[in-house]
């Protein structure tokens, strides 16, 4: 007999993923949304919707093409081909609702120039990022990471990576600061340099994930991305939840969470009607949270690929903090008509970072300068929130806001943490990833 529990949802992408996971587990899910579309802030907009959001009543210029040919992500992110989101998709069989295409390139800014990120020891030997002697040292580190198995002490070379810091591990291989910069930020995908003084295990596992993801598809990067944009993801998880008995109510304004005399959630009210439930999951716009930062983002429509990326039609470029004199990294994300997110010949580029000022136009300039000429550009800045409640006391599970990164690893970590808090168990993601290949176009 499957356990049954009513849960109300007021959702973005994270909440849609959770509703799918819990529906598969046999929980009853009622999904309420103030919007008339799925995904909340992580939706994909057509051209008219994009203009309405940023330009009010202005109309898009005709030369940009048909509105319906655009699917512009509001929270643009690629998926690691071997990462946890792909594993969740396979675990839930959501892959049957989606089609993916490999992302063409992964690049990093170094000394003012854009370079391809080497993912293997052989790529390291060819990379212009390093001199000949540095290449040999980097190759030795890549081989060490490739061979490292936590359960096999023979691969550890006498180092306990739960105690040795990343700085100490890198010192063993004698790498210079520029090499450390691209390895830590463009391969291990750390957002700042705090990782250098943390145990090296996390960085080595992140490097392994990058290399394994790179090897999964014959593309130029470790990333994949769904055709028609990320707006397909919440819709796919909504379909999954419905298959397992989930109920969906869109366009429900003013959702208000109700509590009983003990301070525990009792239901969600909209338009004078209350749906009773035992647990609520929602994004930070619904309940008490605290502001922990801001994200600055630029969205550009272009008629060409990003320069210096080998004419890549889809690409990520990471601008490490040290290269820019900032406290955190900047990210450049580009996709195009090849992923069915724009008309033929058009490219959609995003530049994002954790905001350190209230002037995104100025702050994002280093990334915008890498784009070349743009047809149109929009600027956005939004707050990052995290919950302040104690879910074990009130049964409210609040997701954190989406960060500035252009990959899904931190997003899925938040989802899986909430899943464990709600169910008391860890989701088993040790799945056969060969199924993911079938979902790629």
TrEMBL record:
It comes from the Eukaryota. Keywords: Signal. Coiled coil: none annotated. Pfam families: GDI (PF00996). SUPFAM superfamilies: FAD-linked reductases, C-terminal domain, FAD/NAD(P)-binding domain. InterPro entries: FAD/NAD-bd_sf, GDP_dissociation_inhibitor, RabGDI. Residues 1-19 form the signal peptide. The keyword Signal applies. The keyword Signal applies. Belongs to the Rab GDI family. PANTHER family: RAB GDP DISSOCIATION INHIBITOR (PTHR11787:SF8), RAB GDP-DISSOCIATION INHIBITOR (PTHR11787). This is Guanosine nucleotide diphosphate dissociation inhibitor. The lineage of its organism: Eukaryota, Viridiplantae, Streptophyta, Embryophyta, Tracheophyta.
């Amino acid at each position: 007999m499957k356990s049954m529990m009513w849960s109300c949802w007021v959702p973005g992408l994270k909440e849609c993923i959770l509703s799918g996971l819990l529906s598969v587990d046999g929980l009853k899910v009622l999904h309420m949304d103030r919007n008339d579309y799925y995904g909340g802030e992580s939706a994909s907009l057509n051209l008219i919707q994009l203009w309405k959001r940023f330009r009010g009543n202005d109309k898009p210029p005709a030369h940009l093409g048909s509105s319906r040919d655009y699917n512009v992500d509001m929270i643009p992110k690629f998926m690691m081909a071997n990462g946890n989101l792909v594993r969740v998709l396979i675990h839930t069989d959501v892959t049957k609702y989606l089609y993916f295409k490999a992302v063409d390139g992964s690049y990093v800014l170094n000394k003012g120039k854009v370079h391809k990120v080497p993912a293997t020891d052989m790529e390291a030997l060819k990379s212009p990022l390093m001199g000949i002697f540095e290449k040999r040292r980097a190759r030795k580190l890549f081989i060490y990471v490739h061979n490292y198995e936590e359960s096999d002490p023979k691969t550890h070379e006498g180092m306990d990576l739960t105690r040795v810091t990343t700085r100490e591990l890198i010192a063993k291989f004698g790498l210079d600061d520029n090499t450390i910069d691209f390895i830590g930020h463009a391969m291990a995908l750390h957002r700042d340099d705090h990782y250098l003084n943390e145990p090296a295990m996390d960085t080595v596992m992140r490097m392994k994930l990058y290399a394994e993801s790179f090897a999964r598809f014959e593309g130029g990067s470790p990333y994949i991305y769904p055709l028609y944009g990320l707006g397909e993801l919440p819709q796919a998880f909504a379909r999954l939840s419905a298959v397992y008995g989930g109920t969906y109510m869109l366009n429900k304004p003013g959702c208000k969470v109700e509590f009983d005399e003990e301070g525990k959630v009792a239901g969600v009210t909209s338009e004078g009607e209350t749906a009773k439930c035992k647990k609520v999951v929602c994004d930070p716009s619904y309940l008490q949270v605290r502001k922990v930062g801001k994200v600055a983002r630029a969205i550009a429509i272009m008629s060409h690929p990003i320069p210096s990326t080998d004419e890549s039609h889809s690409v990520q470029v990471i601008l490490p903090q040290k290269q820019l004199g900032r406290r955190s990294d900047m990210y450049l994300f580009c996709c195009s008509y090849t992923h069915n997110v724009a008309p033929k010949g058009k490219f959609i580029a995003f530049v994002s970072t954790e905001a350190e000022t209230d002037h995104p136009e100025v702050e994002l300039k280093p990334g915008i300068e890498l784009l070349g000429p743009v047809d149109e550009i929009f600027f956005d800045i939004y707050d990052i929130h995290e919950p302040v409640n104690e879910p074990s006391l009130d049964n409210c599970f609040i997701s954190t806001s989406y960060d500035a990164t252009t990959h899904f690893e931190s997003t899925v970590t938040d989802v899986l943490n909430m899943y464990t808090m709600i169910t008391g168990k860890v989701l088993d993601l040790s799945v056969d990833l060969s199924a993911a290949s079938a979902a790629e176009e």
